[in-house]
Amino acid sequence: MVGFTTTIPLEIIIAAGKRPVDLNNIFITDPNCHTLIDEAEMAGFPRNCCGWIKGLYSAALHHNIREIIAVTEGDCSNTKALMEVLQLQGITTVPFAYPYDRSRTTLEHEIHKLAQHFDVTPAQADEAWHYLNGIRAHVHEIDRLTWEENRVTGEENHFWQVCTSDMNGDPQSFQQQAKTFLEEARQRQPLPDGLRLAYIGVPPIFTDLYAVTEELGARVVFNETQRQFSMPYRASSLIEQYRHYTYPYDVFVRLDDIEKELSQRRIDGVIHYVQSFCFRQIEDLIVRQRLKHLPILTLEGDRPGPLDARTRIRLEGFVEMVKARRS
């Protein structure tokens, strides 16, 4: 079992015959995820530290994961300290860095180092790449059914795409589950084509954001970062695939992708989620400057759980405003 702190070249883990575990997924789906944060704070993590970092730390210990790939560039700025704290617990940590400038040479070097650590040859990695892309294609179809045919809810779209980061630890079973879901979704009657929202930013720490949004008569038809986890672009190689992946690079690369999808998916308004104490909060001012033709609601979350009253009221007001603007 190999854990990781955010999406990494999954192909290497699969080619090595290891079970991949996205620590974010096992943290947020844990029935006691609140407790995991409390335990991290009891261990000494500061209160004003990202809830995801604290959750990742406790989840790794609870699941007795002894080897973790820590993404030190291209994700959370606290990951380096997390990696050191995990080392203190006797856990083997393997650093992986996405180059800020998307340099092909640097990224190829990083993936090569990762492959060497797990004793994976280029041919084995390439075989795993083709295998996983076949599975990812089913999730791309789930995404298409969401925005083009209105047969999939925003929460279902979020779930399937976010799970592609580790394919729930078992790609073969994940593929079969995705096929079964697709067969069922294709038989559904289309959902009402109401207010169409985009969700951008890291996946939400709120547990009921999608459900509440749909209660209010709106639906998320674009989940930006979750879609990136599914590697939605046709690439010529494994290296190029992770150069096209926008999340770990600068906000302008992300915005180029976001703007294209907002237009294609006929988006009425944007929810920009930011995590408390995360550097990405600063990027909100760039997002608002670039997407100023659309209404934007910035929501901030700290700990896992349902929407608090203030956030829910803000969401209700935003949906009403966008409805009035559209009518």
What features would you describe in this structure?
- By secondary structure, the protein is of the alpha/beta class.
- The protein has a domain at 2-120: 3-Layer(aba) Sandwich (Rossmann fold), CATH 3.40.50.
- Helix content is 52%, strand content 14%.
- It has helices at 10-15, 23-28, 33-43, 51-62, 79-88, 104-117, 122-147, 154-162, 171-186, 209-215, 224-229, 238-244, 251-264, 284-290, 309-326; strands spanning 2-4, 20-22, 67-73, 92-97, 195-201, 218-223, 269-275, 296-301.
- The strands form 2 sheets. The protein has a 4-stranded parallel β-sheet, with helices on both faces.
- Strand 5 (195-201), helix 10 (209-215) and strand 6 form a beta-alpha-beta unit.
- Helix 7 (122-147) packs parallel to helix 9 (171-186).
- The protein is globular, with a radius of gyration of 19 Å.
- The relative contact order is 0.12.
- The model has no long low-confidence stretch (mean pLDDT 96).
- Belongs to the FldB/FldC dehydratase alpha/beta subunit family.
- It comes from Syntrophotalea carbinolica (strain DSM 2380 / NBRC 103641 / GraBd1).
- This is (R)-2-hydroxyacyl-CoA dehydratase.
